[in-house]
Amino acid sequence: MIKNAFFIKGIVAVGMVLSLWSCADSDPEEVILDGITIETQITKIKFSQVVVSEITSSSAFASADLVSLDPNFEIIEAGYVLSPVNSLPTDTDIKMVFGEIEEPVKIESELTALDPATVYYIRAYVETSSGFGYGNPVAFTTDDAMADVVVINEGNFTSGDGSFSTYNSLTGEVELSVFASANGFPVAATIQNAVIYNDAIYAVTNAGDKVEVINSETFESEALINSGFQNPYSFAAIDEKAYVTNWGVLNTETYAWEGSFISIVDLESNAVVDSILLAVQPQHVLAYNDHFYVSNVGGSTISVYDPATNGVIETIEVSFGPDKMVVDVNDDIWVMCTSGTLVKIDGETNDVELTISEINGSGYNERMVISEAGDVLYYVGTSAWPDATTYVYELAITETAAPESELISGENFYGVGISNEVIYVTDHNAYQGNGFVHRFGLDGAEINTFAAGRIPSGFVFR
């Protein structure tokens, strides 16, 4: 197959491929159009009817064959024209262009960045020395926009009433309890974390201890892994293997977690197949550079595991209480510690490059994310009791000291996320009933607030 250059008029991004075509390769069900007309002249240049498939809310796939040429009309270029308003699109609309055509070809195009719930018209075209000619137009309608923000509603730790809700950033529509609506039963647990991996949401819960595997589009339950855990917290995967950190059992006299371990999950069978016993409470697990990084929040180390052997290949000394980890644009790892520090680790050597003190965090279950560009950290901080003020701070990865002031302040902030240059901040509503989510611009100005479930704590963006 031969990839050709193209340009676009309009905002739709496209990728197009030409492949050589012959009658033997033709789909017997395809519709071959009559010769196209150029400047009132009927030519022997023929297209098959455009077929549009794989339609989503923002993309589609178009395919047609340029079946035959006409020796009297030299083709300068060929491709598609597309329009959401013109039912007979021309070269003045969105245009996907190829170079000179000298033999029959198959034209395939992936159309992206389309608007949801919109009718588009598309047809093939050729430009010759005598002018333009077009195939028959085809209309298709993109799907309704899928809610792009999934809110993780942790729920009360003793009630097991965690849930997922969604928000559509285009329409403002909110849907609560989407898992229960899709399945006819609730999550029935406290949701600690959730991530998307291989088109599924893996939700780590306790009370009860399990991992729910959920279709990331429909929220239908695909699998339930409900043995081999004890107060699980975090999930990460490499290929068909996942690590899930487990706090173990809480000693009610010392309030320390005992019997901590890592569950090893086979994602093909969706079962825990082994475990790694630990001497200290683990917290976050990060899959990076073909290794698992586990922050040992009960101590001052990060353990690096080889998934092939499940053995520790390196131990990184950091500040006390390493918790949430993210990877920046330079492939360095940032670790937020409950002791009030941010640690930067070289992603290639695992050497600690920088430790920033006087970080005002939460002191437990730290909430930190990184911008989509990978160059700015955002994290949640709190005031000293009894002050209920909470904060969101931003810190560029080029900085070497803690921020002097917060970006956003308010009451009851609990979790943070960022998508499409909008900062999302959860509000636990003083743990009284359902909470809220606030949306802010990158300058800290509030955009709007929408409803969420009980104790919203984080986000998954689709």
Write up this protein:
Helix content is 1%, strand content 52%. With 462 residues, the chain is an all-beta fold. The protein has two domains: 2-141, Immunoglobulins (Immunoglobulin-like); 149-461, Methylamine Dehydrogenase, Chain H (7 Propeller), CATH 2.130.10. Strands 1, 2, 5, 6, 7 and 10 form a six-stranded antiparallel sheet that branches. Strands 8, 9, 11, 12 and 13 form a five-stranded antiparallel sheet that branches. It starts with a strand and ends with a strand. Mean pLDDT is 91; it is low at 1-28.
Full CATH superfamily name of the largest domain = YVTN repeat-like/Quinoprotein amine dehydrogenase
The fold-level CATH name of the largest domain is Methylamine Dehydrogenase, Chain H
| N/C terminus separation | 32 Å
Number of helices: 1
Biggest beta sheet summary: 6 strands, antiparallel
CATH architecture of the largest domain: 7 Propeller
Q: Name the beta content range.
A: over 45%
The portion of residues assigned to helices is under 10%
Query: Which structural category fits the helices and strands?
Result: mainly beta
Task: Please report the total strand number as a whole number.
Answer: 43
General shape = elongated
Based on CA atoms alone, the radius of gyration comes out at 27 Å
CATH level-1 class of the largest domain: Mainly Beta
Which regions contain 5 or more consecutive residues with pLDDT less than 50?
Answer: 1-28
Domains (count): 2
Task: Report the mean per-residue pLDDT as an integer.
Answer: 91
